[in-house]
Amino acid sequence: MTNSSGGGEIPATNWQPTLPTTATAAIAAIVGTLGLATLTSDVLVALLGTVTGIALAVTVAAVGTDDSRLTVAAGGLLATITGLGLLGSFAAAAIVQVAWPPTPPFGTLAVAPFLIVGAGLTTGFGVVTALRDLSPTRDAGYTALRLLSVGFVPVVAIAVDRWQPLNSAGAELIAARFDQLIRPVQPMSGVAAALPKFVELVALCFATAAVLYVAVGRLPIVELTRESNRQSATYVRDSIRQGLRMVMAVAIVTEFCAVIVVSSSVISLDEFPADVVGGLLAVSYAPFPRQLFVVGIAIGIASLLVVRLVRMLASRQFRPTYLPIAPLAVGSLLTAVAVVGHEPAAAAMLEQSTSDTAQRMLRDLFATVGSFALLTGGILLGLATAACAAVGVSLVHAVGLLGRDSGTQLAGSGVFLAAIAAGISNVSIPVVIIGVATSLYVLDLGEFATTLGQEVGRAGTSRRAEIVHGAGGAVLAVGTVGLGIGTLAIVNRLPQLPAPPTAVAVVAAPVGTLLLFLATR
Amino acid sequence: MTATSLTGRFDGATLAAVILVTIGTVFGEPALFVGAAVPLGYLLVGWIATPPAVDVSIDRDIDPAPAAPGERTTVTLRLKNVGDATLTDVRIIDGVPTELPVDAGSPRACLSIRPGETASFAYDVVPSQGAYEFTPPIVRVRPLSSAAVTTTRPSVTGTTTLICQRNAGDVPQLQGALQRVGTQPVDRGGEGIEFHSTREYHPGDDVRRVDWRGFAKTGNLATIQFTETSATETVVLVHGIGTGQVSRGPGYPTASELMIYAADRVVTRLFATGNEVGLRTGSITAADIAVPVPTNTDDQPWIPPGADEATRRQIDATFDSLVAATRDGDRNVPTHPCGLHERLPPNADIVLVTPALDESTGELVETLCATDRHVVVVTPDITNLDTIGKTVTRIERRLTLARLRAAGATVCDWDTRFPLTRAMEAAT
Question: What global pTM score does this model have?
């Protein structure tokens, strides 16, 4: 149904599902899920799942759709909590079925509480997704990618913690070489050793001049200078660069000569005057010029990096999607929290553990894995769980189980899961029927809101039609409930069947036939 | 052409029924078996659904007709359910011409109409000068279950063409911006129409001006004096057509089009009150104009002030050519009109119509005001705060207008979202 709607710009938000119907569907989904969970006595885990689902949807909205770095960073932090909440929800579904503290052996756990968690999770996620009109394929998938970027720094931190490179032989070797570079030890009779050290010094000088030359060129000295002083600033900058260029030229020539002398079998250092050799030795082994050069290189590189970073952040071309600055920053923050908090957390865990066995187990765990790796691993687990949930939604969409009105489809599926959980938990049959009808009512409203948003848009007049459809959909749902209860009454009037398999076959045969007939129509 | 189809929106219920039956089988729960009756119910509803008939009559109304350029015009569609059944879901998209911007409301709606009832919706468009042909709307009707759909394009009664022309809309009154322009009364008795005072009779006075009533009462001869008027000429300058090729948004009239409309309204008012009016614009040449007009040395139209029908025709033809010129796109226009000051009559007032979007406006007005003329500037405001660039343009224009006021000009800053007459009558 496409036609011109005239000129002018219509905002993209106009084509989202209409708000009144979507809000009605969302309310119906939440009430349906929590109501069924209440009847199965699992309202707490349902609430936990719903809140986690909402948090996951907010994470997707923040990380997957927003380009603001602050929002992405907040979403990254929320993702960690969401992932842990998700794990906690399923853990809670298990804990409510066993005594606390959990002590083996455990009996077979019921499926219903887990279904209820899934129902809450799906409903919460679907409700926010519907109201924000998020796209599960694009937004959730992109969120998963960014969350993997968040996990990069913690993974590196764990690797460093496990590998300990600063204490390794390689690190010690590098440190010794660096120390030798800036504080060379002069041999007692080392006239022959003077020239190699001199070559080293001149190379250091060249490197310093080169780095400073590039850094001075990149520093925005002239841009930041007042207009009236720009000519002077340009002159000063060019003079410095010219001086550094001269230093580089002299260093190259000197280096070339020194290398020739070192490699020559004709020219011997012994032929040089004693004062020259003495001066060469003093200069080559003096620590101050070397330290000065190293400091110069450090300043030059730091300036280059800072200027590059500032320019990149200030540039209009730079977008967070090009470089995962925000996810990496969040990863660094989480790692910093783990660095600071792992020891107090370990101490608190040991204090809180009541039994000797638990204390011994924790001590063994800390000794084997380390408290830092354990805490960072927990953070990573949370992130991975949130990312997997987001990817899961994308996959469900990819296989075609979610359509264009995916938000309300998810919300309706949540109610449907809750209805199944209620059916398994031996809740009365009419309640299950009402639950199933509610889920289909939510789906009905969702489809209506989506098509209305796409064909008419939020700016169009539609309030009365939405009310009429909402009421008509409710009547239809009530009618199907009546059909279900009628079916129940008929089933109750049927004579008892000899065995459960026979009963299943008797019921499944007409239902399956009817389904086949309707599906092939 | 009418198309019907089934939406298949309850197909998902099949999956729900299968899941319920399967899980019911696995867990041996009769509740789930019975629960499968609910999705089956939805499937049955989808099965019995048929595409509904589109029994509606549609009427379109456009107000005002004809519309002035830039004037917000309301289009109202009324749908009457002429069938016997309630139409719960009627989606309609009006066939608005693509070049016509919708300023408020939406040309799309979803309505629910009982038999015999009429539902309506309205939206506003902002036309430029021209004729806009509306196509019949697309109507899509669904039953309550939304399981089937009928789409058609029914014919429409009422107005199908929006006419937008320059001479539509109100003419500004003389009380506002034009108060000091053209023929003005002076506080001096003499020839005229309106009574001013009486004075002692002098031999040779016209006998028709003798106050015979006073003579009958007092026996003294007196002569009636009427309020004299200072008859000045007015030249309308249309300036900056090239820089005015910008609009508030895609499809909206450009500042240039609105300038021509404003100039037309001013000229109409001045002619109506017996003023001698001339026109000067540097945006076109005489060759572009359908009738012969006087020109300056650059062959640009320079119509000297006059109150006769020939002058009016020349001015109208020049406006028509300017409208055509604005549609041709940017034109290279000299910012300083050639020989303007030399050709202006010494006692002429100036009405400058300009978008005030460049520096030349300030310079021109300062020069004109320096010669002790009454200068009225009428300037359509098409700027907004949508982007940084537009915000800067808006601020620059405000500064230009402040400069014009400081020079002594009367500035009518016309917010183009509202009628021109309101802006002109409010400006002092």
Answer: 0.70
